[in-house]
Design a protein that fits this description.
Mean pLDDT: 75
Radius of gyration: 24 Å
Distance between the termini: 18 Å
CATH superfamily of the largest domain: SET domain
Length: 369
Amino acid sequence: MAPLSSSPAAARKVFPPRRRPSPPSPHRKFRSMEDIMRTAKYAVTERDDYSRVVCSKCGSGEDSDEILLCDRCDDGYHMLCLRPIVVRVPIGSWYCPSCSRNRPVKRFSQTKVIDFFRIQKCANSSAEKCTSPQDTRKRRRRSGSLVLHKKRRRRILPFSPTEDPARRLEQMGSLASALTALRMEFSDQLTYMQGMTPRSANQAEFENGGMQVLSKEDTETLEQCRTMYKRGECPPLLVVFDSCEGYTVEADGPIKDMTLIAEYTGDVDYIVNRENDDCDSMMTLLLAKDPSKSLVICPDKRGNIARFINGINNHTPDGRKKQNLKCVRYNVNGECQVLLVATRDIAKGERLYYDYNGYEHEYPTHHFV
């Protein structure tokens, strides 16, 4: 499953002339030498007009129309020199890696986190007391000898949330901060907006060659995880900011192999409507026999933690070693869904990576970290 993106070389010019204070009046009297020097410095900046900007990474001033200027320090960077590569001109303010480290991150109080994710409050504080009898029956049904379990097909496991409720709120707060920084809304399901794709278009039967059906047991696991999310019980994950990779996700506790990490959510749209969209986070949802019916997930306005889990460069052995998740499309009750599942045991502090070039091999991931 590959995100869809156009070539980074198609970027437009990104540094229009900066707004500067009005030049001093010719009749102004200077009071000191410092005043004169400040005026002289201003005059030099106006004459340059950013025509001599060079990339702070490679030192070259070539391809000036692909250089991003930091809105804080005015340093320039080629979009291809940044890691991860910037594939389109950022909307709003942009900060270089150095300034991003010192950029203040909005923090959420416990009350705001609960409101942000619309967590359903339980009468009892204990998570076990909030568990429905139906969940209990599911757990009993799944419990069995390891010998019998090994003989069967490998099942998807529900995630184990952190036991400390305060720590869970910190985990969800890190996600809320990242979503807010990108001006996104939280959504734990696929959304169908007016003018994009109706829900009736998401039919697994349209998939070219057919789509694997999620088993009854795994569907129950998916529903159990959705219920836990609504109660504020999330996987042990933290969204952190890295100067090289940007927002990324790391494990805040041990995660077992075959654990369901997240559903890939966002707005559903037709691929033909996004052919010229160079967003690097779109995910293939449906590849139909009729290309006009193929769908993608666009998490640029609405999404969840899957938006911040990084893909890997699967063109190198080192890149493949990083992979600890797989991205799989399933037929869930007749509709297409994309799930991220652990492919091995993941230790606390380990960052999460999935192979976003696992399906469409022509995607140029060798440009990415």
